[in-house]
Amino acid sequence: MSDSGETAFPYGSWRKGQRELAEEVRRSVSEGEILVASAPTGFGKTAAVIYGLLSAGVERVLYLVRTVNEIDPVVRELKRFGARFTFLFSARRMCPLMSVEGILPSEEDFWGNCRIARAKGACRYYEKLAETDEAEVAEYVRGHPAISAYRLAWDIAKFKGVCPFFALKGLVEESQFVVATYPYLFKEDIFRSFLEPHDYDDFVAVVDEAHSLLNIHSLLEYRVSLKDLELALREVREYAPSAKDFISWLERTSKTASGLRVSRITLLDKQPFLEGLDDLAVVEDIVETIRARKAEEALSLSGPSGIGRVKTSTSKIHSWLSVLSREDSYLFAEKDENRLVWLIATPLDPSRVVKEPLERVKAAVLLSGTMPSPKLYLKVLGVSRSFRIVDAGLMYGVRGFGRFFTIVAADVTTAYRSRGDSMYRLIASRIALADRLLPGLKLAVYPSYEVMYRVVERLPADVETIVETRGISLDEVEARILTRDPGERIVINAVAGGKLVEGVEFVDYEGKNLLSTVIIVGVPFPQPDDYTRKHLEVMASRIGLSDAKKLVYLVNPIIKVRQALGRSIRGPDDRALYILMDYRYLRRDLKEVLGIPYHRVVKGAEDFEEALRTAKSRVLGV
To answer: Per the record's keyword annotation, is S-adenosyl-L-methionine included, yes or no (predicted)?
Structure first.
């Protein structure tokens, strides 16, 4: 803020369209509307939105981001504006007490063990909060030079000796901005637990990467394995033997799960799995009984540090049942690469997750660099309130920042009828050629884990790779990128819409983008399985079959592609090469929704190599 009390813009000048977007934000939140705003990467959306919110005199903002890493750029901007802020993300990732040998407990185990540790005075970090000045914590958080929210949380524990989560939560009351991950708005139990006494209508909500709301129902997805059921059965028999009805249910459910014949993901009737469970509160009581007994054992054997080792398989079953018992949830079975059967409970309509929060907040700003058609977008979300739409490209003549060159490789595809050893080898040879000719980091994005593994195993031995797995650590990936030798070439192999595409910033210690080549292998169409068919059916029942097909088979896949491409251009000085490895990108509908020019369409190795050399010279400047 300036000395006059007016909001000061912390940059020397405005980028094209920024001032206009800020004014739209000010007007929309002042009138209690939803603003749907689309602007390209590098536009400076965050700064423009913060300026608009401050100009409107907003008292409380809940600024939502998808991942922990996405907290960091928002915090950097808030510091430039001198705003009062705090941030929240997964408490278990901040906790200095509960991780055991670097292994994080499950969410259920973490919060159950945390409650016991606090109640018994066994957590010295929480105990010290009572004697810590809140203003001192606020000054430390807002003046800390760390560029990582995760690092800052750990520094609070290390240098202040207090629980970072509850220290940051303690700043909510006097903060104008609370920067948090999606669950803090879209999971009611989390909102109620950590933002009370405030209610939804106390906040203006800003949702970054708001195209993700089209699949926000996956936030509530919960899965348990046959192994989880068997472990829970053993646990209840040992620690709560009087729970006869629940033991019978676990025996019956384990037997049913072990008898399932699953190839791809399969839709199941969920009612037989709920029979005999009239009150989930009874299951919750059983979980707490088991946890209390295990905690007493751990405390007597190892002291306070032992609480972090307490695990309760039964708590996973309770969480799964909590989702399964929802009126709008469905049950699927899936067999993973290790042939382990999983039971997946999930809703399928995003409106059942976002409608109520977005209708109850004071106002909302939905931001994206890859926003689909606003008409379809709002129809899918199902929100009934006044809205305003801003497209920076159409309204202010703003173009995407940076320069790029697009090559379409029209001699390859991941279409099901064409998959096989020869096609996987051809794709691998193209990636290897790009790696040999082009400098630095490359991101190769695949439609599924299966396709990725088939291609990666056929890459030449001299191609250095990072390969996404379901349990991959983002911190390890970022460390590998930052510590690579100068000039070292690496191909990062990731799944469309997965952790590496959405959750990692490919930047150096000074924030400079390190990624200049993105290879999209195939089109990330959904698998032709029961999940896709049921999702289409559920959406068609509300928005109509035509729009449902467009959402499932066109909009969602292309959003994943655009998000992956956007990783290579984060600012006006960036240069990038896009390689679309599938002839289906020549389809008119895909090309229109993707919305980028194609500079070369190639067939054959020689044509591909010549296009790479042209792009390398013209765009990458090497």
So the answer is: no
The closest alpha carbon to 257, from 152, 346, 342, belongs to 342
Which residue intervals of the chain bear CATH 3.40.50.300? 18-102+123-218+351-396, 403-618
- Rounded CA separation 576/564 (Å): 12
Three-state SS at 86:
strand
Say which amino acid occupies 489: R
Other CB atoms within 10 A of residue 200 CB: 18
Residue pLDDT, tens place only, 562-595: 989 988 876 667 788 999 999 999 999 999 999 8
Q: Which residues pair with 142 in a beta bridge?
A: none
For residue range 89-134, what is the model confidence (pLDDT) as tens digits? 999 889 988 765 567 788 889 999 899 989 988 899 999 999 999 9
Residue-level pLDDT at 2: 45
- pLDDT confidence bin for 510, thresholds 50/70/90: low
Instruction: Report which listed range, 48-62, 271-285, 488-502, is most confident.
Output: 48-62
Q: How far apart are CA 359 and CA 375, in angstroms?
A: 17
DSSP string, 321-377: HHHHTSTTEEEEEEE-TT--EEEEEEE--THHHHHHHHHHSSEEEEEESS---HHHH
Which structure tokens are listed for 395?
């309204």
pLDDT value for 606: 95
Whether the CB-CB separation of 514 and 542 falls below 8 Å is answered with no
51 CB burial (10 A radius; 0-12, 13-18, 19+): buried
Mean predicted lDDT score pLDDT of the chain:
90
Whether domain 222-347 has CATH 3.30.420.40: the reply is no
Is residue 18 over pLDDT 50? yes
Report whether 126 contacts 165 (CB < 8 A): no
Angle (nearest 5°) at CA 61 between 58 and 62 = 165
H helices present in 495-529, as ranges: 499-503
Give dist(CA 205, CA 53) in Å, integer: 10
pTM over 0.85: yes
> Is the model's pLDDT at 419 over the cut of 90?
yes
Mark out the alpha helices in 82-123 (DSSP H runs). Answer: 91-94, 107-119
Orientation of helix 374-381 relative to helix 351-360, angle to 10°: 90
CATH number, span 403-618: 3.40.50.300
Beta bridge partners of 576: 404
Contacts of 154 by beta carbon, 8 Å cutoff, 6+ apart: 94, 96, 164
Segment 484-509, tens digit of pLDDT:
887 789 999 999 988 888 766 677 76
Specify the length of the chain in residues: 622
Name the residue with higher pLDDT: 43 or 557. 557
Structure tokens at 426: 């051809």
- All CATH 1.10.275.40 domain ranges of the chain, comma separated, are 222-347
Instruction: Give the domain 18-102+123-218+351-396 fold.
Output: Rossmann fold (3.40.50)
Which DSSP string corresponds to 18-56?
A: HHHHHHHHHHHHHTT-EEEEE--TTS-HHHHHHHHHHHT
Contact 191/182 with Cβ under 8 angstroms? no
CB atoms closer than 10 angstroms to residue 2: 9
